[in-house]
Amino acid sequence: MKYYEERHEVAFTKTELCDKVVWYGDFVKNSILVCVFMIIDILTIMKVRKIRIYSVNNQNKNNESISEREKRFLKQTISQGTIFMIQLLAWFSIDKITSNQVVIFLSSEYVFLAIHVLDG
Q: What are the extents of the domains in the chain?
């Protein structure tokens, strides 16, 4: 780890080994985890729906409230996963494309902070 004065950040040094650690240890691992979590959440929704359909004591009003909860949960799951993937892409790719300090700041530090605000 090294402090880079021009970017005002502590980051891995610019070596081939550190690039591999950052790419595979951070980006690929986190991308896979986000996809796995989204798949598990979607499978959970499908399982709850299947159990609810086979339930004997369903009432129409109860079905609508559960269905609305399922919709909100699905929207939340997909939006959280999408926002996190955007953050990962911005964090790992924008600084390799441009050297503009404002763009790098907005795509890394600002997006990192915004992901935690939007997630809540």
A: 2-119
